[in-house]
Structure formats: C-alpha cells, structure tokens
Amino acid sequence: MTTISTDAAVATLVNVFTVDPENQRALADLLTEATEQVMRHLPGFVSANIHVSDDGTRVVNYAQWATPADFHAMLADERAREHMAVAAKLAESFEPHLYRVTSVHHA
Amino acid sequence: MTTISTDAAVATLVNVFTVDPENQRALADLLTEATEQVMRHLPGFVSANIHVSDDGTRVVNYAQWATPADFHAMLADERAREHMAVAAKLAESFEPHLYRVTSVHHA
Predict the structure, then answer these.
(1) Which of A15, A68, B17, B78 has the fewest CB atoms in 10 Å of its CB?
(2) Which one of B16, B32, B100 has the shortest CB-CB distance to A51?
(3) Which of B2, B28, B100 lies closest to A102 in CB terms?
(4) CATH of the domain at B73
(5) What percent of chain B has pLDDT over 70?
(6) DSSP letter string over A15-45?
(7) Does this model's pTM top 0.90?
(8) Nearest chain B Cα to A49, which residue?
C-alpha cells in the first residue's frame, strides 16, 4: 500500500503514457515487470503504482523516489534504460514530470 | 493521508493540467479551495491530492471517487462546474482520465 501525504519527503514522478488501446495491457505489464526486475532495487526507490485508464488510451505510473537525484540516477542506469526504451516503443508518447504534493483532502 | 492499493474499490481520476509557470501557484490554490469548498462534500468523494511539478509547467490532481458514477455526477454539479471553469481558464490545457490501479510495488 502506497501513501500520499504532504509530510512525506519524496519526489513524486507522474508519468502519463498515451497508448493505442491495443497496447495498453502490454505496456502496463511491461512497467510492472520492469519495476519488479530493475527499478525497485535501485537506490532511493520508494514505490511505483501502475494505473490503466478506463478508456484504454492511457497508462500512468505514479512513482515515489527518495530524492530527485535518485530519480535522475535511475534514468542513467543501463538496465532501466533498456526497459524504458521498450516502453517508449509501445507508447505513442509519454510525459514524465517530477512533483511535490501540496495538499491532501478527504471527505 | 491517502492510500493507493489494488484492493481499494475506488475510481481514480488523474487530471494533468498544463500551465504557464506564472499561473502554477494560483491553479494549485484554486484546486485546493474548490476541493475544500465543494468537491469533498459531494457524494462518493474519497480524496484529492494536489501536486505541482518541479519545472513549473504542470499541476496534477490525483483524486479518488467511490465509483465512476460519482465522478460523473460531480461533473454535472453547478458549483463544481463553476470552479472547473475558472481552473480551465488558468490552465493551457487539462487531461482528466479515470483509472484503476493494476499494480503497486515497494522497495
């Protein structure tokens, strides 16, 4: 279980992949596999949370790293780069940005 | 504190706003205010989590609703529509999609 909080000292990556609905399942499976095999063993990895859109056209990875530097180090990792290259081929486009949480609201 | 889990019976809205960095703070504040005043009192609201990107160009609302129908009912609410119209004016574009969580990974 992942938690979102304004107190957590994490860098949040939200990566939105736009995808042909035919490839949505394959992309989600690939991200799951890459996370288990590579990403989650890298320094500073906190969590990854893979989402598929109801309309079939998007996959979102909501991921948490201890620091922005840990995220940037991952981008330079050879095995991570191999997985990201396959993901890029399955997607039409993708938009990774680093975020911080500014507010959390509940009912 | 918000939780992400594959077990949770929620419909997840990920809404990515693209914004002029000059307007990022105002948009995040508006979403926070709209959530507190209107959204969180609507039926089926579970959580909203407002994020700002380090590069200044994005605001993300990661929100949870009990069901897709609750989310769609919100879209028809008059007060919610007023807030969304102001948000739309502050943003260059926005991309709301409903998702389900397919996998959650930890270090």
Answers:
(1) B78
(2) B100
(3) B28
(4) 3.30.70.100
(5) 100
(6) EEEE--HHHHHHHHHHHHHHHHHTGGGSTTE
(7) yes
(8) B104
